[in-house]
Amino acid sequence: MRRHNSAMVLAEVLRRPGLSRAEVAAATGLAKATVSSLVDRLVAARLVDETGPQSATGRGRRGTGLTPSPTGPHGLGVEIGVDYVATCLVDPTGGEHAHRVHPGDNRGRAEGDVLADVARAVSGAHADAAERGVPVGGLGVAVPGLVDGKGIVRAAPNLGWSDVDVAAALGGDLPVLVDNEANLAAVGELAAGQGIRDFVLVSAEIGVGAGVVLDGAVRRGTHGFSGEIGHVCVDAAGPECSCGARGCLERMAGPAAVLADAGVRTRAPLDLALAELVDRLSEGDDRARAAAHRAGTLLGLALAGAVNLLDVPAVVLGGGYARLHPWLAEPVAAELDRRVVAARWSPTRVLASALGARAAVVGAGQAALRAILTDPDTYVRRVTTA
Amino acid sequence: MRRHNSAMVLAEVLRRPGLSRAEVAAATGLAKATVSSLVDRLVAARLVDETGPQSATGRGRRGTGLTPSPTGPHGLGVEIGVDYVATCLVDPTGGEHAHRVHPGDNRGRAEGDVLADVARAVSGAHADAAERGVPVGGLGVAVPGLVDGKGIVRAAPNLGWSDVDVAAALGGDLPVLVDNEANLAAVGELAAGQGIRDFVLVSAEIGVGAGVVLDGAVRRGTHGFSGEIGHVCVDAAGPECSCGARGCLERMAGPAAVLADAGVRTRAPLDLALAELVDRLSEGDDRARAAAHRAGTLLGLALAGAVNLLDVPAVVLGGGYARLHPWLAEPVAAELDRRVVAARWSPTRVLASALGARAAVVGAGQAALRAILTDPDTYVRRVTTA
């Protein structure tokens, strides 16, 4: 009961910062005394700040305004990339801090070595938090692969991983939430708020994945394996993909394919190769532009299938595709217009991710934070009994 | 408030038929007097029956058992097919009655003429209800096309319709709910209950459409245009579809394509041509079997895209595909196995629709019924003030 009420009180403060205890009581229907004692706990755990007397609103007496605390428990976001490990901190108001990227090719390395690097990066992020004088409330970890409902990485082909328990490997006392990088990028995108609550975010790193968002919630599917748009077939007679099938989007229009088509040497980190591609595209290089156009057409074909199936009003290009958005948007939109049956009544917007390459790590931090904000009492008990 | 409580009481009776008023009060947390007066209204409107003293359960006194009334308001389902109009009645316990199919090719006819036929079929269904001595509570209408959130048929290409207000055309005092036939087939499938709450139902009539069901709810999309799997591309270089795009599933593996491939003359009603195809398949006709195998492979390719995106544990073959299930299931399953990245951890079941060709019309009746059962008080007020 206290757990439920505590969540209700905090949700109200997050939704309308500045409310007094009495106003929270009125909004939630809880007794004033109950609200006051819940708020005291939230203040003690630094989830809520008291900001001095509210400005007078004309009626009733002044109360102390309550706001989410920017120095409260932070979500620590981690992204295990194929050629980097990234971390960041997200504060209770949603602000992101201390974004760090540690380059390093993780392909073909022993998973224990990679996880040791990840643990070092996490230690670094804890040091960032300590330096800012803020607590870390939990970890979110983005992984480029299939993550099941229990957080086990069933397969991350580009890392060569199968059945890896990342949460156990990172150990520690904090809750650890592990999810697919595109799902977490979608969480980041939702939090960044381009004002859309229904979309498919397609994210290109070394691999290509998607986050499916309906009614403001990421749909992880029955087993957690949704969003595998990289293995949607765009040409049944196409070349064989690492997954064993033929003509998958990732194989034909993923970053490696675009770079090869454009005549840009693929190398680690991918970021550098993409930067070179963007340079050539900006200069109007014909081969680069033809490669981007071809990739955009195939991406549009796959996205048209998703939009025909789900009727979402927007698709979001994320990760590497976000950087290529200026050259991909037109062919993607053209395919959507050609292939989406309802296009005449509901044209689909083709947006670039607001967070670009940071989406997954920020989304990981947001997800860790959200786990606390939607169940603050569990956090409060954890820190007050520690 | 009464509206909410009335819905709660009826939901409890539907969930656990046989409860007494006191047991409903205990289960809902409402006062016994409140429950009793709500039940009186539900009984007066024939939504609930009193079934005499409950059998003794060993504790407490006996009460009158409450059950959903099979003679209460029925949902009248209508399906406007391309070459038939069908109707049925669905009683408050979910039982279906008086299923009627009126053959007749509706292609190229003026929409007013078709709607006049539909109105006649609806009158016939009302007569069926009158003969049974049961009231009709509302209509559900299944249409093979894009239906927007307001129930306007934006486009039904195989009927040649655009912007048709079916509800207004059918007039009358009853509420009319209009939706895409595949969405309503999915409603029927959910009610028929093969025990799955997450699936994609792909339904083949003249056209091919899908109902996307997640967490037990049909996802209609932002504008109501979801489920257009018939226009998912299965071969970018394929033949042109009526929608203007190339290589759509409907064009390459819809009933017309399968029949042509198999060398069976397409004719109205489609049903007869499919019956001939089924005969040939049963006899082991090579050409027919090759055609079904080819269609199943393409269907599997399109469904693999949907499963990769949504991670649903089952696909359901509906309408014409349900009749071909014995020959489609294997190639569909093979493609799912080949193309779904998570197939190893979550093999997808390939089911035949439990309702077959009746799914859309039964789903239409179920949807009309559900509108009453989820808001019984509105119905009660309607019939008691009439």
Automatic annotation (TrEMBL), chains A, B:
Ranges of biased composition (kind: Low complexity): 64-75
Protein name listed in UniProt: ROK family protein
Cross-referenced InterPro entries: ATPase_NBD (IPR043129), HTH_MarR-typ (IPR000835), ROK (IPR000600), WH-like_DNA-bd_sf (IPR036388), WH_DNA-bd_sf (IPR036390)
Domain HTH marR-type: 7-51
SUPFAM superfamilies: Actin-like ATPase domain, Winged helix' DNA-binding domain
Top-rank lineage group of the source organism: Bacteria
Species per Swiss-Prot/TrEMBL record: Actinokineospora soli
Family, as annotated: Belongs to the ROK (NagC/XylR) family.
Region (Disordered): 50-75
